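Task: sequence design from structure.
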């Protein structure tokens, strides 16, 4: 998603390093370059007013920032601003190199201005440099030369303090701590002392000992309210303000550290301190003086020169840099790791004080970070890491793309049991609750069963089921039945494995019932199994479901159904402490209203609760696993790496904030409100001005009004803050939430209007509203006298028309009265009959519509029975279908006395049977009294009846293509229940039932054929997959990449290819003619030719490869002698290192381009306009090699044309221009996030329409 709040700015969104306690992690940072804010590079100081607006002291003036818009206010002669402060009356005071003053709005315009106060100084001090301004409730304190002055009530007075009479002293070491100021003063005798300025009074700090004048002294708050920490290159000490005693905290820094030049200090949480340096960025240290982390340019700080820190209202730490600004979230409860844990995280295991993380390799947490676990190859994708109970001890069990391993006391042992198959990627693990000595490892289409005996692991059996792909999770229900979830096939309910080891060893396959939408599941993608409070729960695309054994169906879990329904949320990944039966907490990863959400669910006595506010701060990525450790820390893993949420770190997620109107513009260039909220030209107030005072009247001829607005809430994710507005008097409805910060209205009607806007931050908190009232004046032709004239003229005309029309109507009414009287009598007599007939016709139509759309016999019986029961008395109903193969009339779902029978079959040769008589004679049978009429129909035979025997019966033949395809019967326990009316209705209904039977017959034939075809295509899918590089292999070669590979059908005409030749890496994306099976066949031929070309040639360029591929395709498909024109388009790169440690990329393309980002700039290189294979009109074919030199961190993208060619519901293609813009907009993000956002954009664009072509996008960060 693209951030649009800041116009003409380039914002780097990244993550930088941070420490909490003893574990190193990363946290969020936003950086702003001088290009973004359009001012000088160096920033020296910052303040924030009560509205939340930030002011930065910049080399070119005062930078004003409200999260959406930047504004630069210049001082006289464009002098550098060195300091800022806000006084108790809300004024923002500015200290420049030569002048000082405050900001206000010009009295005759909406422009800001700087009000110089130098002239208020005593004459002898006006040319003396002011070194510090400090604003308080008591006034503005001015440090000039060796004097301290106070500016209050428009007067400047000298402050009384103990060194007032000293003439040659100097100030230094200014440290502002909220409203207090600490500073040192060195008198004429070179004695240095520290002072405190608080509540307008200056007092000395005694017993600090000798204060060095050769090193900068910093003061920050201690952990206790009455303590200060004094820090310099010489070390740090604690000073108690009450006892005036000091205590050493730590000794001097090393010489190497001192040379970096400490420039600023900030107090962080958990006893940590941030140090800014002149040359090496930010250092995080503990109270022992130990360096825990260095945050510099390599760690994504925008610049290494730090001039200062400022903490905003949301506890964001702004670093004021020698070049730019960075906001670091050093007080966040979140930290994260990516490269340190191998990238994409697939599983997490908190194990007491240990933490294991599965990705490409297995990682373990140490006191300083994460380390790879030796013994598990880093080129193996680890799918799970779990606890294995061996009885006497517990071990860690790990499943990878090649084997399984156990870990105990640091020792790693691979599975190498007797009779164990050598092949198998293990993707899931389950240890039986019923038989704890047995556990199962799940792979692709198989499960391996193991048993534990005397602490040893023994392989029992491998059992195969070729329908079950990629087993994600396994659980047993309370009956011992093993359930399996697959990545994209829903659930499978298998047989009971409570067998002996000998019995299991003889099994080579297992039976599983596929559970999908037919069983009530809302979908089959992303389902998982979990054990919760004594039973299984099932995560689905519509939330948490439970299973009903009686009906073999799923339904929403009533404990959580309301939570998911209200939020339109899925349940993707769950965590629950299944070892604690009293634990009512669930952690869920969901998609809520099409947005990612992570939430804590709690089942309480008064209902269940959903809490997701803190997790809204996380970036968008694919969540694979959730976990919680014993210290209540929540761990989240997936494509974005590993995230840690520490609830101990307090954060006010519901803090109030404001939405501010930043400008109101009438016409194209007339600003009537600038958002400065200055009351007059010589004062500035930080409170919101009354917009009722600021409302204005707009002339009708120029009623074009535009509003800019912003929310000064700086704790944002990739998207930023959202806004909602309304214009009362025009449309009282609030708009949809949007990131847009500008709204224009034109051609408004005369009247009174009130524009209102509010914002919503990343945590979902909605701000106070901002409003602006205005009036659009009426034009001259809408004034009062004009309207009176219009009304008078119209009234006279209307009155005349009314009188003439009234006379005409009276005459006409007399004629109609006699006609109406006669007609009314006729209508009344036929009304009842017509209404009854209409009801029957309508009912028949409704039944017909429903039954002709059903494709299942039991459902057909149910629908007909429900509807005809409302039209006649029915106790028994059924539709029988003729089975010519076994010569039977088969009833399925036959209903008799409220009971449903699965199956009843009657031989077509049976006698004394009404159904068979109807079949043989092809005529309707109507019986009014069974007991009386039975002997007449069956040669005098009698029938015994009781209270449940139907006495009235109708049998209707269902004739299809001239033959009887079935029989429909309706029966009642009452005599004479049916008349000719019911007989006629059922005869008409039979036409619809016959159509429904035809549909069902056709559907079953198509379903059987489709199943056979689909099975064949799935087999082709497996063959094609074997030709493609695996994801784990790609991750091994390209550590930072994403791949979007979406076949239109099961198999694809697109494919991606990789090979290498010594130090050269070849990578390609190929788009073959067609899609589906023909395209897949082409792709396999193309892959084989590409592999052969690279292996058979020692030195080959991409252009050479394409030429040989072209010739190979033409030869393989005999295109030299036939009209076959099949071929492919391709984008192919060769990547190799240069002598100066850069990368040379050689590209050749056939109708496909290469996109990329080089030094932050987007580029496109087009391939030749010639396909591979097909018709060749030129005598000699060649493909052009194009070279470019790239650096590490640059990005290349290869893509087929499927993404750009995808249409939306309006049949509009996405287009290559928009696709390239999409790549540019997301290029600054980590590659995994790019892949997710690009795929989300595709899904959003094609919502409601099917995919029209195969789609492949391959992004690689070099």
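Answer:
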């Amino acid at each position: 998603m693209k951030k649009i709040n800041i116009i003409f700015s380039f914002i780097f969104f990244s993550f930088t390093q941070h420490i909490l306690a003893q574990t190193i992690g990363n946290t969020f940072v936003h950086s702003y370059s001088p290009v973004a804010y359009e001012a000088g590079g160096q920033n020296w100081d910052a303040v924030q007013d009560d509205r939340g607006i930030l002011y930065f002291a910049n080399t070119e003036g005062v930078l004003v920032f409200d999260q959406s818009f930047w504004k630069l206010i210049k001082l006289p002669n464009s002098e550098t601003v060195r300091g800022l402060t806000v006084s108790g009356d809300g004024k923002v005071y500015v200290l420049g190199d030569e002048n000082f003053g405050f900001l206000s709005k010009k009295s005759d315009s909406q422009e800001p201005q700087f009000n110089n106060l130098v002239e208020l100084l005593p004459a002898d001090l006006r040319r003396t440099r002011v070194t510090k301004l400090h604003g308080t409730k008591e006034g503005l304190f001015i440090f000039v030369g060796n004097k301290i002055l106070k500016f209050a009530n428009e007067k400047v007075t000298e402050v009384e303090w103990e060194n007032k009479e000293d003439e040659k002293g100097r100030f230094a070491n200014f440290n502002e701590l909220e409203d207090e100021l600490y500073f040192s003063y060195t008198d004429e005798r070179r004695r240095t002392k520290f002072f405190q300025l608080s509540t307008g009074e200056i007092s000395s700090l005694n017993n600090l000992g000798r204060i060095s004048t050769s090193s900068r002294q910093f003061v920050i708050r201690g952990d206790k309210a009455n303590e200060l920490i004094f820090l310099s290159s010489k070390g740090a000490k604690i000073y108690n303000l009450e006892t005036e005693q000091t205590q050493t905290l730590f000794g001097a820094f090393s010489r190497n550290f001192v040379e970096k030049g400490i420039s600023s200090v900030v107090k962080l949480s958990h006893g940590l301190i941030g140090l800014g340096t002149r040359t090496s960025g930010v250092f995080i240290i503990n109270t022992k003086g130990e360096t825990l982390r260095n945050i510099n340019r390599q760690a994504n700080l925008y610049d290494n020169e730090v001039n200062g820190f400022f903490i905003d209202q949301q506890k964001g730490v702004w670093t004021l840099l020698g070049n730019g600004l960075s906001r670091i979230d050093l007080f966040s409860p979140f930290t994260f790791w990516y490269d340190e844990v191998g990238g994409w995280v697939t599983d997490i295991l908190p194990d007491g004080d240990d933490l294991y993380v599965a990705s490409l390799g297995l990682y373990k947490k140490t006191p300083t970070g994460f380390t790879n676990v030796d013994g598990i190859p880093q080129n193996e994708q680890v799918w799970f890491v779990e606890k294995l109970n061996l009885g006497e001890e517990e071990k860690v069990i790990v499943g990878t793309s090649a084997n399984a391993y156990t870990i105990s006391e640091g020792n790693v042992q691979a599975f190498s049991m007797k009779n164990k198959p050598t092949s198998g990627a293990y993707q899931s693990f389950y240890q039986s609750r019923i038989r704890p000595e047995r556990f199962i490892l799940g792979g692709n289409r198989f499960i391996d069963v193991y048993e534990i005996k005397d602490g040893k692991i023994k392989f029992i059996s491998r059992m195969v089921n070729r329908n079950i792909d990629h087993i994600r999770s396994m659980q047993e229900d309370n009956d011992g039945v093993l359930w399996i979830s697959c990545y994209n096939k829903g659930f499978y309910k298998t047989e009971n494995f409570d067998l002996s080891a000998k019995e299991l060893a003889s099994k080579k396959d297992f039976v599983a019932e596929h559970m999908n939408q037919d069983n009530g599941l809302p979908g089959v993608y992303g389902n998982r199994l979990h054990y919760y409070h004594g039973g299984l729960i099932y995560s689905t695309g519509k939330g948490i479901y439970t299973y009903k054994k009686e009906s073999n169906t799923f339904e929403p879990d009533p404990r959580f159904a309301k939570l998911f329904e209200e939020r339109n949320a899925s349940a993707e990944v769950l965590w629950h402490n299944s070892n604690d039966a009293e634990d009512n907490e669930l952690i869920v990863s969901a998609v809520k209203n099409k947005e990612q959400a992570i939430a804590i669910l709690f089942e309480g006595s008064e209902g269940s609760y959903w809490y997701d506010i803190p997790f809204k701060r996380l970036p968008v990525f694919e969540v694979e696993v959730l976990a919680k450790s014993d210290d209540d820390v929540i761990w989240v893993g997936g494509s974005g790496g590993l995230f840690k949420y520490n609830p101990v770190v307090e954060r006010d997620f519901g803090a109030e904030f404001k939405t501010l109107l930043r400008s109101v513009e009438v016409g194209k260039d007339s600003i009537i409100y600038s958002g400065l909220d200055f009351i007059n030209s010589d004062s500035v107030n930080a409170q919101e001005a009354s917009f009722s005072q600021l409302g204005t009247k707009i002339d009708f001829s120029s009623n074009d009004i535009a509003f800019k607005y912003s929310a000064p809430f700086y704790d944002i994710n990739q998207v930023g803050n959202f806004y909602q507005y309304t214009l009362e008097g025009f449309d009282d409805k609030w708009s949809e939430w949007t990131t847009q910060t500008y709204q224009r209205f034109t051609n408004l009607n005369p009247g009174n209007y009130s524009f209102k806007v509010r914002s919503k931050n990343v945590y979902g908190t909605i701000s106070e509203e901002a409003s602006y009232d205005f009036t659009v004046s009426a034009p001259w032709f809408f004034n009062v006298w004009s309207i009176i004239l219009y009304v008078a003229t119209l009234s006279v005309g209307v009155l005349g028309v009314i009188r003439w029309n009234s006379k005409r109507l009276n005459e006409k009414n007399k004629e109609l009265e006699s006609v109406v009287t006669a007609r009314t009598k006729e209508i009344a007599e036929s009304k009842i009959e017509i209404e009854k007939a209409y009801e029957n016709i309508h009912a028949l139509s409704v039944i017909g519509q429903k039954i002709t759309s059903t494709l299942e016999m039991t459902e057909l019986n149910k629908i007909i029975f429900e509807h005809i029961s409302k039209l006649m008395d029915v106790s028994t109903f059924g539709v029988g279908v003729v089975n010519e193969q076994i010569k039977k009339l088969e009833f399925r779902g036959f209903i008799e006395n409220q009971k449903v029978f699965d199956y009843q079959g009657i031989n077509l040769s049976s006698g004394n049977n009404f159904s068979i008589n109807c079949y043989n004679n092809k005529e309707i049978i109507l019986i009014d009294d069974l007991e009386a009429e039975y002997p007449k129909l069956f040669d005098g035979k009698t029938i015994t009846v009781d209270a449940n025997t139907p006495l009235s019966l109708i049998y209707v033949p269902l004739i299809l293509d001239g033959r009887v395809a079935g029989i429909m019967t309706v029966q009642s326990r009452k005599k004479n229940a049916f008349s000719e009316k019911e007989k006629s209705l059922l005869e008409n209904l039979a036409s619809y039932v016959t159509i429904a039977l035809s549909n069902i017959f056709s559907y079953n034939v198509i379903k059987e054929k489709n199943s056979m075809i689909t099975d064949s295509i799935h087999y082709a899918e497996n063959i094609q997959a074997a030709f493609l590089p695996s994801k784990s292999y790609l991750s091994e070669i390209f550590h930072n990449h994403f791949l979007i590979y979406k076949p239109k059908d099961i198999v694809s005409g697109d494919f991606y290819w990789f090979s290498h030749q010594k130090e050269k890496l070849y990578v390609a994306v190929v788009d073959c003619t067609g899609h589906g099976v023909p395209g897949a066949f082409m792709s396999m031929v193309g892959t084989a030719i590409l592999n052969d070309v690279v292996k058979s040639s020692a030195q080959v360029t991409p252009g050479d490869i394409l030429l040989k591929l072209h010739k190979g395709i033409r030869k393989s498909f005999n295109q030299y002698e036939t009209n076959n024109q099949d071929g492919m388009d391709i984008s192919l790169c060769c990547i190799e290192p240069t002598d100066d440690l850069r990368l040379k990329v050689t590209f050749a393309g056939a109708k496909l381009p290469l996109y990329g980002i080089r030094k932050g700039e987007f580029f496109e290189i087009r391939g030749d306009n010639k396909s591979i294979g097909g018709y060749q009109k030129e005598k000699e074919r060649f493909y052009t090699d194009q070279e470019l030199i790239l650096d590490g961190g640059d990005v290349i993208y290869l893509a087929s044309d499927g993404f750009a060619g995808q249409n939306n519901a309006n049949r509009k293609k996405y287009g290559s221009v928009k696709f390239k813009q999409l790549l540019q907009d997301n290029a600054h993000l980590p590659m995994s996030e790019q892949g997710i956002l690009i795929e989300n954009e595709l899904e959003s664009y094609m919502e409601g329409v099917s995919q029209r072509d195969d789609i492949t996008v391959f992004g690689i960060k070099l």
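The two ends are 24 Å apart (CA to CA).
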